[in-house]
Specification:
Distance between the termini of chain A: 40 Å
Number of helices of chain B: 0
Helix content of chain B: under 10%
Order of helices and strands of chain A: EEEEEEEEEEE
Helix content of chain A: under 10%
Oligomer: heterodimer
Largest sheet of chain B: 7 strands, mixed
Radius of gyration of chain A: 14 Å
Shape of chain A: globular
Structural class of chain A: mainly beta
Order of helices and strands of chain B: EEEEEEEEEEE
Structural class of chain B: mainly beta
Chain lengths: 113, 114
């Protein structure tokens, strides 16, 4: 069973701190990885995606991918209370061209003012 | 505005009843997906379709059925065979199933049993 694993949390950080969200995956064929933010009762919205080893930055967000360690992370700098949400990590389903994604169970982030 | 529209937002099902959830997209996306989300859980794939008139089972297809008669529409029927249908249902689409593209989601339908 191909899996994406996340710590469910909650991860609690003070406002202005760096939040670090982590994800591991079992499918070595996964090519790309996606971070979605989901507010309570709402649908997921795409935050970032990454497909190359290393870091990718977009504003306050940095995604990191290490394919050798099968590890993906999302760093949120200068965390704001509005960042409080569940963050879903997803990876593409192996090398098959289906567009399918495998989702982790999500990490709940709480940013305290 | 381009996007994915799911309806209704809330739906209630009686015992033994089939209900259909609508998903329409005007993004000209090739592939569409249906997921189920239970409280505190990630998304589990029910069915997906890469092209019109073709669809494939996902990980939890039992008790569900779909059709893809038009590119823009991918309705999901929750049949009476699905004994635990209470969940948040999400429809997603992707511009092309080839290549590593992100999926984009509709606003979801919350289904409950009466």
């Amino acid at each position: 069973q191909k899996e994406v694993e996340q710590n469910s949390g909650p991860l609690s950080v003070p406002e202005g701190a760096i939040a670090s969200l982590n994800c591991t995956y079992s499918d070595r064929g996964s090519q790309s990885f996606f971070w979605y933010r989901q507010y309570s009762g709402k649908s997921p919205e795409l935050i970032m995606f990454i497909y190359s080893n290393g870091d990718k930055e977009d504003g306050r967000f940095t995604a990191q991918l290490n394919k050798a360690s099968q590890y993906v992370s999302l760093l949120i700098r200068d965390s704001q209370p509005s960042d409080s949400a569940t963050y879903l990590c997803a990876g593409t389903h192996g090398s098959s061209n289906t567009g399918k994604l495998i989702f982790g169970q999500g990490t709940t982030l709480q940013v305290k003012p | 505005d381009g996007g994915i529209t799911q309806s209704p937002k809330y739906l209630f099902r009686k015992e033994g009843q089939n209900v259909t959830l609508s998903c329409e997209q005007n993004l000209n996306h090739d592939a569409m997906y249906w997921y189920r989300q239970d409280p505190g859980q990630g998304l589990r794939l029910i069915y997906y379709s890469q092209i019109v008139n073709d669809f494939q089972k996902g990980d939890i297809a039992e008790g569900y059925s779909v059709s893809r008669e038009k590119k823009e529409s991918f309705p999901l029927t929750v049949t009476s065979a699905q004994k635990n249908p209470t969940a948040f249902y999400l429809c997603a689409s992707i511009i092309s199933y080839n290549g590593n593209q992100p999926q984009h989601f509709g606003d979801g339908t919350r289904l409950s049993i009466l």
